[in-house]
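EI: anyone free to look at a 260-residue chain?
SC: sure, send it
EI:
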Amino acid sequence: MNIVVCIKQVPDTAEVRINPETNTLIRDGVASIINPYDMHAVEAALQIKEKAGGRVTVITMGPPQAETALREVLSMGADEAVLLTDRAFAGSDTWATSYTLSMAVRKIGADVVVCGKQAIDGDTAQVGPEMAEFLDIPHISYVRMIEEVRADYLLVQRLMDEGYDIVESSLPVLLTIVKEINTPRLPSLKGKMAAKKAEIKKWTSSDIGAEADKIGLNGSPTQVKNIFAPEAKKNRKVLEGDIEEQVDALVRELRGLKCV
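SC: here you go
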């Protein structure tokens, strides 16, 4: 079974700053991490491999330094890593990103594609489902448990607002994973040593056969025009006393503001 995991390197949200002149994120000097939801996706992929056999290939799209994230995942037990890196990919929105990743997945070949629910720097949760549309395969979002995996189908639990659904799908299929599904494993010393020596394939747009008008900024139907941090408000009050006293104080404040 061929299992492909898509990961993304994102800024550590605790250190994100915004340039007030250009209204863009300041990435220089900001530590990068693997998107937390993607770590759960990696663990889910490794568990599928342990149940059904096969290989796990991890892919990411980004600058050359994204290789660090791929080696981290290799140290957890992934078999192969591919870095999609090309200046032509710069400025991709979710649509162009999904197209690019789907072209790489198509080249690799996959029975199961696993993605994190969403990336913490965008929170759109669009890339996984959009990839499934480009690949013309079914997808199941918000997967909280993989109950059964066979050569031709799998059975999962999909997280809902109230409880969960049990969903069966034929293969190939794309899954997006929520954090409730597992606890990502720690890499072993042996895994870390192997990851340092592992070869990471680097593919450009021509390597995956991507059409020029569907990638990067030119292939993105949406663009970010402005980004800003909410203005901090200084008129804060701390309500003291026991719970009932705090509630009474809050009600008085809301009435004074004519909110109730």
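EI: The first helix runs from residue 36 to 52.
SC: 👍
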